[in-house]
């Protein structure tokens, strides 16, 4: 039987601006992250999220607004109270950047780490009728659908029920009293101790807002009823997954793994954002459900470029790693010049490795796959508030936003 020549090429979507995650160890007074491999493990995890998130986040730069001030805050790992980040008053956050302050603390037994998005205090006053350009830059970084400041009578208040989230960053603490930390980026430890890669993947997702039950966070809009109501997460999971506000409770139902850190794409795996992940000989990684929740929260993502598997048979078989929220269109050519799709409609992603078998008789052919993001619902644009320089209505400062932190069990 003749064998067909199959060449699979992946067409990348239009490139977005990747995120920069600036890891700062200002809060690591004990030197916990000076242990061999500790910073390298955290960097590998941050690199993953940098490549995943393609939102366009505006800069927070007080020098661009006359008289502007602010101070970033984080949730103290012991008391939970909002604490100013030392020495960071009027900190500049570059565009498309999250700043994460990293440290360690003696956390309660059974807690591997805790993390959450930061807050802020000390926003400088602006004219009541000015539109609060500085305050809104800190509140939402230009993201449509994120929380914003609006005039209400003689004061200014933040809007409710946001559909997007754009923090300046946050804080992450590992439990320094936990024994046998594993900082390898290639192998998990089974029962020896927590794996830094799995823990950091979980905690950075908290900083992105999953489980951070705050009025400024779109996660709260999705989960206020005790279930995650996002359409993509329901599509991925097959139902609305239960949540206690901080973590997911899938009640024994697994999702499908993203193919990173040695995991097979599409393999059955507990969602990353459950309260406690059991010990394993493999790392826990984001699943299709976790990625769907990020999209439902308003984050723009581009999953890692999938590696296509091609079986060279009489009828070539393509296996395409997929993600919910994306469609996959297959194109065929016999000469690399003229391409056509053998599919009337693209294949919808579901977190599995999609399988397509060439229905035509054996012949030399080339194939490529284009990944297309499913059109999301249109988010409301930020309002244009009138500015009256002659009568600013008197100056008023916007309210502080509090930070939060989620405590998580061993991994």
UniProtKB/TrEMBL annotation:
InterPro entries per record: MetalloPept_cat_dom_sf
Region forming the signal peptide: 1-20
Keyword Signal belongs to the record: yes
Entry keyword set: Signal
GO MF terms held by the record: metallopeptidase activity
Protein name stated in the entry: Peptidase M10 metallopeptidase domain-containing protein
Organism, as annotated: Luteolibacter luteus
């Amino acid at each position: 039987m003749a064998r067909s020549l199959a060449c699979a090429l992946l067409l990348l979507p239009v490139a977005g601006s990747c995120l920069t995650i600036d890891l700062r160890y200002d809060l690591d007074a004990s030197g916990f992250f000076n242990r061999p491999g500790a910073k390298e493990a955290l960097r590998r995890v941050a690199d993953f999220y940098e490549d995943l998130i393609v939102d366009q986040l505006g800069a927070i730069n007080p020098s661009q607004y006359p008289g502007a001030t602010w101070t970033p805050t984080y949730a103290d790992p012991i008391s939970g109270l909002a604490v100013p980040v030392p020495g960071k008053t009027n900190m500049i956050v570059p565009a498309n950047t999250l700043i994460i302050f990293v440290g360690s603390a003696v956390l309660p037994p059974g807690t591997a780490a805790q993390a959450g998005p930061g807050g802020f205090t000390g926003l400088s006053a602006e004219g009541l009728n000015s539109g609060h350009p500085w305050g809104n830059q800190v509140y939402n970084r230009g993201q449509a659908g994120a929380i914003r400041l609006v005039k209400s009578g003689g004061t200014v208040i933040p809007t409710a029920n946001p559909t997007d989230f754009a923090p300046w960053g946050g804080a992450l603490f590992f439990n320094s009293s936990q024994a046998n930390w594993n900082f390898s980026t290639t192998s998990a430890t089974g029962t020896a101790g927590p794996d830094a890669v799995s823990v950091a993947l979980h905690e950075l997702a908290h900083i992105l807002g999953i489980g951070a039950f705050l009025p400024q966070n779109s996660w709260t809009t999705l989960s206020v009823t005790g279930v995650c109501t996002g359409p993509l997460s329901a599509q991925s999971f097959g139902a609305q997954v239960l949540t206690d506000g901080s973590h997911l409770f899938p009640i024994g139902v697994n999702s499908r793994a993203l193919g990173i850190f040695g995991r097979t794409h599409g393999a059955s795996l507990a969602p990353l954002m459950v309260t406690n992940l059991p010990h394993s000989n493999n790392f826990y990684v984001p699943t299709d459900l976790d990625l769907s929740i990020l999209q439902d929260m308003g984050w723009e993502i581009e999953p890692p470029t999938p590696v296509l598997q091609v079986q060279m048979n009489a009828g070539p078989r393509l296996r395409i790693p997929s993600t919910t929220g994306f469609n996959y269109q297959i194109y065929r050519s016999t000469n690399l010049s003229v391409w056509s799709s053998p599919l009337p409609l693209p294949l919808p992603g579901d977190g599995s490795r999609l399988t397509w078998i060439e229905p035509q008789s054996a012949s030399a052919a080339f194939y490529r796959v284009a990944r297309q993001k499913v059109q999301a619902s249109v988010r409301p644009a930020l309002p244009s508030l009138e500015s009256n320089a002659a009568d600013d209505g008197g100056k008023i400062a916007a309210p502080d936003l509090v930070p939060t932190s989620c405590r998580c069990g061993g991994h």
